[in-house]
């Protein structure tokens, strides 16, 4: 008699449509959605359709100490949702659990399963004029469980916060297979520790999120979008401070766009430079609201006039239609893609306090230029949160492989400067496998120890996403 | 030779001005700021002035298993910050640690020590036109450490969230005396577990908060305040939904005020009924913003007109000056005080989903009237968050002591209905000692178990606030 292996138990539990174990079937789940790193081998890809199935799988794995890699849309950028090379890990993909369980139009919340894709969620909410306001590039693939597990950020954080601020409740299968039901449409609940917070941003190391109650907003009815040429990078924090005092209620995005980024998008993706007189750094500033467009337009124009007078900005355009707005966002949204077409890159996703942004960019630019003369530097992104994607492109003459040999030195140089500015080495992408080493270097010992204490207390067999984060 | 006791070590450490151990000196720290319950006896009241002193006290207590009760302004309502009757607990009062360490006007944050009083913080921030937007009745006494430890709510939660949403970083002395430095002015930081969340709302059971980095906003420059007579309680959620769609950016408060509450404030505290034709339930609705007053005024009037046309409201006044606004808030803010002058009370601080508020109030009113015929019912407060202070007043003829004998039955009846409506038995006041029994009854077993796991992992000797929450 052949003994029934734990994997057989899982196969039986899920039925033939509920798992993948052939190499060609597993492969899409073994590598990230974009990027070439972190392509591993899974023992099995489990595709459960119910919380009960998830619990049973987790119990089997817990009992047999089989490592589990929770996976959603697999759009993460730090190797947190793909299996390692060992072939011993099970991918627990939640994509088939994608149901909207309840929508509360009065309390403005939705309870949705982890596998629902962000764009699909918002499509389904649109008819009730409701919106889950996390806006990220991968919204067509990213799933709710992954958004919550990585505390996704994006371009709307100034107005709506990160995913954490929008999670009202969670349903989690714990490492021993028990169900922690914390789904809740309540805005206030001070009954003991706020346990859901543990699982938000935990990158699947403490259990698997199977559903979430999310806070919704009314979909904005009006937008005003400006593209502004800064006379100096130093002026970005000053403009931001003014905006937070005078436009706070409607300010939804403030993105830094360097001249080189616009040029690359124009070169590789057919966009047009929006400004007649671009400067080294530009700002994409957007207001949104559930109000008349004229209200926003008056506010924005009243805000911009003194900026010209004070010479904080030297050129600018306002989008006068949805099409023009889309053209401005097209440039911002395609910077990464254009960079990739230009050559090999070393990327960062850091935060520093907003008033440190200019100094950080200046110092880090000097440091990396010393290491790699001619390196091309593209600091862009969410300057409104102090979150800069400090991306580095190879100098034209170098071959990609040669450039990438500098990656460790570039990382050390940039992270040391981030650390000196009280910054974070990962603003929104997380730690995963990519930044484990840096976390150990830059996080304080008491914080790391407390993280390990919590991991050990909850996932005492170390079954959930081992080797990620820690 | 007399052995040196642990209390002697603490006395020596703090010096004569740093502790209180005479009964008359300790007494103000042994009883809550308001209310008569939870008046205990402290072994010693420690009044440290530095984080280092706090660490040393905690190390001594940890070593000798001496229970510690962290205390701020002592304005809590659930017995979480006063010592028990045993006389063995040390009160660790942080009031002398009240320094603003840094203000970041660009990133709009402040790092402040735990003992700073909320009103004092805002006074010090006012000159920079900054504001920490937690608004609670006890702001003249409540301290930052307590606000964070209890995740304070208040009247502005619709716009700004609870305290949790405004905490960017914390400094915590852990139960073993080690320092967890998580102060941070960053809006985005995905480097591992968000450890600060554990201590927010933990009611001092996992360590003591010594400082916090708080998110600030520009102080509003304009307000519009309306007092509206509802034609039916059923209309409150409908009006709220409309407001969340049309006024979201500026909506800062939506408070339910029953007719009886207005009458009691008029009777005991000399206010005037604002409406010519009051109804059973009224709404205090407020907009605030950093904009022109005319903008808010136009928005509010445009919002209210159809409410009259649809007969959702039947009467209303708009505050036309700061003085009139203050008069409306005077009524709202003095409901509790007026109730106390009227007789014995049994109070609740519950949340239900907003669309369940009318059904909850109806069902709970029926249930308590059955238990105590003639009972007077005052459901008031933060209906915009579903958070109702469902307060019960003795029927006039009964003596207070007789009324209070019904307290256990009234609590059970109301909490059972809250639970059936997926509500919370403590919206903003916390658990402390007051609601321990109910927490054990209404919280799910897996959630309670996980809470205990965390408590055991972090405070393994059970030194911090033992017997509170659990």
What's the gist of this structure?
The structure is a homodimer of 470-residue chains. Chain A has 470 residues and is of the alpha+beta class.
Write the layout of secondary structure elements.
Two copies of one chain form a homodimer.
Chain A: H1 6-14, E1 19-20, H2 23-30, E2 42-46, H3 51-64, E3 68-71, E4 89-93, E5 100-104, E6 109-113, H4 118-126, E7 130-131, H5 144-149, H6 157-160, H7 163-166, E8 167-173, E9 179-182, H8 196-199, E10 208-215, E11 217-218, E12 222-230, H9 235-246, E13 251-258, H10 259-269, E14 281-289, H11 293-309, E15 313-318, H12 322-333, H13 335-342, E16 345-346, E17 350-351, H14 357-371, E18 376-380, E19 387-393, H15 400-404, H16 407-420, H17 436-442, H18 445-458
Parallel strand pairs in A: 2-4, 3-4
Antiparallel strand pairs in A: 1-2, 5-6, 6-10, 7-11, 8-9, 8-10, 12-14, 12-15, 13-14, 16-19, 17-19, 18-19
Helix pairs in contact in A: 1-3, 10-13, 14-16
Largest sheet of chain A: 5 strands, antiparallel
The assigned structural class of chain A equals: alpha+beta
Strand coverage percent of chain A:
15-25%
Evaluate the radius of gyration of chain A.
Answer: 23 Å
Terminal CA distance of chain A: 41 Å
Number of strands of chain A: 19
Largest interface, and how many residues on either side? A-B, 89 and 89 residues
| Nearest-integer average pLDDT of chain A | 96
User: Which residues of chain A sit in consecutive blocks of at least 5 with pLDDT less than 50?
Assistant: none
List the total number of helices of chain A: 18
Strand order of the largest sheet of chain A: 5-6-10-8-9
The quaternary state of the protein chains shown equals homodimer
**Shape, per Cα inertia axes of chain A:** globular
- Helical residue percent band of chain A: 25-40%
